């Protein structure tokens, strides 16, 4: 069928700078660039370009620029290019439209409508360069009260398992299979170096990565891929995945061609078969069922590790979260509408779920009202871009945040949204042996650790500015937030006052 | 002595080692002029070998027992007795290519324009060779032994 789709991008090559080294040709996994020997020129097939910037970065003379294709449609607010082209694409394929990464639609980003406080005159700010500043966070259920033996001044209460992280930022669940083994190892190394945790996602844990176990969250998802006692024992925490922000309510599908021998061993499924994660966990149809799985996992790990539950942020998140905490979760994860993925139906990614800021505020408020907030740590995910977002999330009530996209961007990702093709030119969302070499964990983990280092300095600076010397003291302290440009209702849900009021 | 070692598990076959080797061994040391203007064109002493997912950059091993030096008819190919670096004296090379036959690694390059040979000289004067310094993925290392 002839395609009616125009090219999205135009590759511009400055011929006065092109030295015909063919780095662009070798690096583009979409075969956009080619050498035309007859013309003696490197040429581009614009329609293949996804604007991933691999060639731009690798061109040693910076000869390549990529533009949006300026081709216009007749102005129509309802029928914009994306709407028209999605219809064309479906008319040609007859299938669901797949995409990667997170929701790119202009839903309000509440982080950008909340501002942080700082101390002036009446209370001193703290200089983190001169005074100690504490970012360490403990993930796990906290006891309702602490009993201290007054005679010997020792805490008598037995604490539930706690896992310390040196800054309130962890790497979110990205499975081996969805991302390359080298990308998994990069996350593991950076987490180890920075004293935080990364998450296996539902892809099991490759043998090579067991040594990073202390910094690993092992996930148990609906497909139960690669879950066995050794796997559970390997991690620092266990996470039950109910849902994911990018695709609430639906399962996962790792196509058979990505199930290589290594992926097959790790996931414990035959090579070349599709890895289908069902939409629900088939043994969980109620909070009581969830409780059974939580305690089965606690039993399996001998009550030594926090067991958490992750859901996509949806309309009734607050009530569901209350149920999760009461079911025995030591930490809960909320993944908002901007949460990313390796592959999801575009229609789901762009239309299902709620923004993480409101979900977090609603859940934190609800757990406080019910007097059970201390019974679980609250971790949020989905669209955290910088340390400002992290700090605002903590003030809104989170214990810690997960970053996925931000971590991948530090590793080279340009958010081109083509993860689902399995051809990631940066070697991240691929299991192609030729492509996954492009991530050298030794050097790429340093980029990732640097990102966390930078954020950690910034969070300390923001805390110091507020006159706070421990991240614990900011948690749920919404008085440090003020709203700019929000409606009364939004401010009420967020529990934040109008700036200046 | 320090040598350049390839790490095939990290080589992404971008061939930038070759590009920066040519620049380093050009007259102008300017990447665009070296490739577009200079005549004869500068040559690279390193070459990426690839087959499917396997790729690595190969350059002169600077062997302790340099067969190329033993084979050289004119004394153009020599091993520095102090540093152990094997270099070719372009003024003495007659382009008989006996060294190319003798090299067990295929690391010596034919300079057909000048009818002589060209090879890696480990970039004298640089703290590390240009190929190593410009490898974007840590696939070339400059050290005493292959494995640290």
Commentary on this structure:
The complex is a heterodimer of chains A (501) and B (148). Chain A contains 15 helices and 23 strands. Chain A has 2 domains: 9-95, Alpha-Beta Plaits (2-Layer Sandwich), CATH 3.30.70; 165-498, Aldolase class I (TIM Barrel, Alpha-Beta Barrel). Chain A has 501 residues and is an alpha/beta fold. Chain A has helices at residues 23-27, 54-58, 81-93, 181-194, 229-234, 261-267, 287-300, 317-326, 346-351, 356-369, 387-396, 405-410, 433-436, 441-465, 488-494, and strands at residues 9-13, 33-36, 41-44, 64-68, 98-99, 114-116, 137-139, 148-149, 154-155, 163-165, 169-171, 198-199, 216-220, 237-241, 252-254, 275-277, 307-312, 331-335, 344-345, 377-381, 400-403, 481-483, 497-498. Chain A is globular and about 90 Å long. The model of chain A has no long low-confidence stretch (mean pLDDT 96). In chain A, α4 packs across α14 and α8 crosses α10. In chain A, α5 (229-234) links the parallel β13 (216-220) and β14 (237-241). By secondary structure, chain B is an alpha+beta fold. Chain B has 2 domains: 1-59 and 130-143, Alpha-Beta Plaits, CATH 3.30.70; 61-119, Alpha-Beta Plaits (2-Layer Sandwich). Helix content of chain B is 20%, strand content 22%. In chain B, the strands form 4 sheets. Chain B has a two-stranded antiparallel sheet with strand order 1-8. Chain B has a two-stranded antiparallel sheet with strand order 2-3. In chain B, β2 and β3 form a beta hairpin. The longest helix of chain B has 9 residues, at 16-24. In chain B, 38% of the residues are buried.
Which features does this protein show?
heterodimer; A: 501 residues; alpha/beta; Alpha-Beta Plaits; 8-stranded parallel β-sheet; 23 strands; globular; B: alpha+beta; 5 helices
């Amino acid at each position: 069928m002839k395609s009616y789709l125009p090219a999205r991008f135009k590759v511009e090559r400055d011929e006065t700078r092109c030295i015909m080294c063919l780095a662009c040709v070798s690096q583009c996994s979409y075969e956009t660039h080619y050498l035309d020997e007859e013309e003696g020129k490197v040429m581009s097939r614009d329609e293949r370009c996804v604007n991933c910037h691999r060639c731009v970065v690798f061109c040693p003379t910076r000869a390549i620029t990529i533009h949006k294709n300026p081709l216009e449609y007749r102005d129509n607010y309802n029928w914009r290019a994306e709407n028209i082209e999605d219809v064309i694409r479906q008319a040609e394929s007859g299938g669901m439209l797949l995409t990667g990464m997170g929701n790119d639609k202009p839903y309000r980003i509440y982080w950008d409508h909340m501002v942080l406080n700082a101390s002036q005159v009446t209370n001193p700010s703290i200089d983190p360069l001169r005074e100690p500043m504490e970012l360490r966070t403990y993930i796990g259920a906290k006891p309702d009260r602490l009993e201290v033996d007054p005679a010997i001044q020792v805490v008598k209460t037995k604490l539930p398992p706690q896992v310390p992280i040196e800054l309130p930022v962890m790497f979110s669940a990205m499975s081996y299979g969805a991302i390359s083994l080298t990308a998994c190892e990069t996350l593991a190394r950076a987490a180890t170096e920075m004293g935080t945790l990364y998450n296996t996602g539902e892809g099991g844990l490759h043998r090579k990565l067991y040594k990073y176990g202390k910094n690993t969250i092992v996930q148990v998802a609906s497909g139960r891929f690669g879950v066995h006692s050794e796997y559970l024992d390997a991690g620092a925490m266990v996470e039950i995945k109910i849902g994911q922000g990018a695709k609430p309510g639906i399962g996962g599908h790792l196509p058979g061609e990505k199930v290589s021998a290594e992926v097959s061993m790790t996931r414990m499924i035959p090579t070349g078969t599709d890895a289908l994660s069902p939409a629900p966990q088939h043994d969980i149809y109620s909070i009581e069922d969830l409780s059974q799985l939580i305690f089965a996992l606690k039993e399996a790990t001998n009550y030594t590790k926090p067991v958490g539950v992750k859901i996509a942020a949806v309309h009734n998140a607050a009530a569901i979260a209350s149920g999760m905490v009461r079911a025995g979760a030591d930490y809960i994860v909320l993944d908002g509408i901007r949460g990313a993925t390796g592959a999801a139906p575009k229609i789901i990614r762009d239309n299902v779920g709620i923004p993480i800021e409101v979900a977090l505020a609603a859940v934190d408020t609800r757990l406080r009202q019910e007097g059970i907030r201390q019974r679980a740590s609250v971790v949020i995910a989905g669209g955290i871009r910088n340390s400002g977002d992290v700090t605002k999330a903590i003030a809104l009530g989170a214990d810690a945040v997960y970053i996925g996209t931000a971590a991948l961007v530090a590793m080279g990702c340009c958010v081109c949204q083509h993860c689902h093709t399995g051809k990631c030119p940066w070697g991240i969302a691929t299991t192609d042996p030729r492509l996954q070499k492009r991530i050298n964990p030794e050097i790429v983990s340093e980029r990732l650790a640097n990102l966390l280092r930078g954020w950690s300095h910034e969070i300390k600076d923001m805390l110091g500015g507020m006159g706070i010397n421990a991240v614990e003291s900011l948690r749920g302290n919404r008085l440090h937030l003020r709203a700019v440009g929000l409606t009364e209702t939004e401010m009420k849900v967020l529990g934040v006052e109008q700036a200046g009021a | 002595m320090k040598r350049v070692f390839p790490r095939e598990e990290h080589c992404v076959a971008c061939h930038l080692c070759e590009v920066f080797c040519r620049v380093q061994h050009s007259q102008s040391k300017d990447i665009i002029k070296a490739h577009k203007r200079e005549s004869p064109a500068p040559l690279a002493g390193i070459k990426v070998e690839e087959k499917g997912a396997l790729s690595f950059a190969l350059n002169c091993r600077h062997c302790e027992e340099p067969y190329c030096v033993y084979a050289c008819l004119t004394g153009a190919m020599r091993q520095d007795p102090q540093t152990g670096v094997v270099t070719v004296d372009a003024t003495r090379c007659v382009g008989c290519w006996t060294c190319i036959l003798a090299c067990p690694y295929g690391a010596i390059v034919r300079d057909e324009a000048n009818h002589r040979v060209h090879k890696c000289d480990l970039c004298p004067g640089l703290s590390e060779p240009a190929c190593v310094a410009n490898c974007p993925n840590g696939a070339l290392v400059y050290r005493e032994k292959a494995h640290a």
